[in-house]
Amino acid sequence: AQTVTQSQPEMSVQEAETVTLSCTYDTSESDYYLFWYKQPPSRQMILVIRQEAYKQQNATENRFSVNFQKAAKSFSLKISDSQLGDAAMYFCAYRSAYYGGSQGNLIFGKGTKLSVKP
Amino acid sequence: GAVVSQHPSWVICKSGTSVKIECRSLDFQATTMFWYRQFPKQSLMLMATSNEGSKATYEQGVEKDKFLINHASLTLSTLTVTSAHPEDSSFYICSARGLALSTDTQYFGPGTRLTVL
């Protein structure tokens, strides 16, 4: 079974600085997707960024970028120029590319709570 | 695009009553919908997966007779908590994955906070 591990329960960053959130995963599959979701105090889950495992190029979305190391099974999220609105819980998630009994559901890590200091 | 709504956003009910939560995809057809449960300061726990017109697939440990899921159309799935008890109090979130969208991405509803007295 696949697992997702976020080893940092809490992180803090100064406004305008850069922070990196860690995520590792375990799988025997070769084709899959990885995601970072943000959950602010409103508790609405918001997709931040996604990565296809078959793509070597790291995904980027404005101030958010990932460092995807497939061999190491690592998928970290870098937030540049941090803003107060970035404060939230961040969840790393894995999804198999193969449809089966799970029908491609997401497997979440336990989350990292990010605080942004003004 | 890709908006998912949930109704109600919060509900308080008495122990023993049943509560229905609706999940709607507003601007796309959702072939698959997922129901999650989230306890305070914890991650999302998948309860069940439903495909339109089919019976839901429940995760191990989730009582299918207690958490009834219906996915009657491509834009609507409902979760009914039957004979609710205080231990069912939680935050319930649905997500949807649909036709004509990137099939690898789930879009989430805003969640429903259930409190059972």
Please explain how this structure is put together.
- The complex is a heterodimer of chains A (118) and B (117).
- Chain A is an all-beta fold and 118 residues long.
- In chain A, the strands form three sheets. In chain A, strands 2, 5, 6, 10, 11 and 12 form a six-stranded mixed sheet that branches. A four-stranded antiparallel sheet of chain A has the order 3-9-8-7, with no helix packed on it. In chain A, strands 1-4 form a two-stranded antiparallel ribbon.
- In chain A, strand 7 and strand 8 form a beta hairpin.
- The radius of gyration of chain A is 14 Å and the shape is globular.
- By secondary structure, chain B is mainly β.
- Chain B is built from no helices and eleven strands.
- In chain B, the strands form two sheets. In chain B, strands 2, 4, 5, 6, 9, 10 and 11 form a seven-stranded mixed sheet that branches. In chain B, strands 1-3-8-7 form a four-stranded antiparallel sheet, with no helix packed on it.
- In chain B, strand 9 and strand 10 form a beta hairpin.
- The relative contact order of chain B is 0.33.
- Chains A and B meet through strand 5 and strand 6 of A and strand 4, strand 5, strand 9 and strand 10 of B.
